[in-house]
Amino acid sequence: MTSDTSTLPLSAQEMGEMLSAATQDLFTSMLGIEVETVSEYEDEGDPFDGVLSLIGITGRVVGTGTLICSAPAACDLSSKFLMTEFASVDEQVLDAVGELTNMIIGGFKNVLESHFGRLQMSIPSVIHGCNISTHKTKADVAVGLRCVYAEGEIRLKVGLAASRD
Amino acid sequence: MKEPPSLLIVDDSTAIRKILLRVLNQTGITLGDVFEAGDGKEALKVLEGKQISLVLSDINMPNMDGIELLRTLRAAPQWKTLPVVLITTEGGQGRVEEAAELGATSYVRKPFSADQLRDKLASLLAS
Fold first, then answer.
1. Cα–Cα distance between B111 and B19 in angstroms, integer?
2. What's A138's domain CATH number?
């Protein structure tokens, strides 16, 4: 999923590259595994079961970074992150997924600051459930990536718009 | 005989607190008590009346963030020289400079490699 409808000095392709680099940095340094960005994806708003983690970005640009994965992938990534086995999604898994999102979107935001100056991030909000659906991002520039590692995959989305302030 | 160092880990993520505890235990240095706090306000409560040797703190936290915690510590005579390491996703040069000006002892960017962090903490604790 890419959309690029504004005068923001950043293309969806550049955003995708920044997001992919931040994801690879996290996977190799903290999880010790390789991850590959295999495709962009279009968010059709189809309902899914699993875990969704959201972080807001504010400053000269505003927007949201989102990580979506299945419950087994959330457990697997948390197990690798904390070196503790998780068979089901619990508070520790939700906290771990929130922190993984924080580090990916944080890495992305650090590069974004070279374009837009200092930006702030919210703390993560993490949702676990069934039949979750998300609406298309109303953003000037948006990108969605599907990233695959040996045991599973995550989907990442970032949408940004110029601040009205 | 020198007391083993006591530490305070400040992060709203229990996952990161757990990882830092594991890394600390891998330094090979005998540690005293290791306390935990979920934000800056909790950290100040923990610090009251305790002899803490080193604080490891996140920046982005609810209630009181790591920068405000650092500012508070540096303004208090009893904590003016307490070593504080900021461990954070905030990697922009402006943030690093601001932290250094406020008196942060060191700055570690997340994501970090456990090996690098272990070596850094071992070096700080040894000194």
1. 12
2. 3.40.1550.10
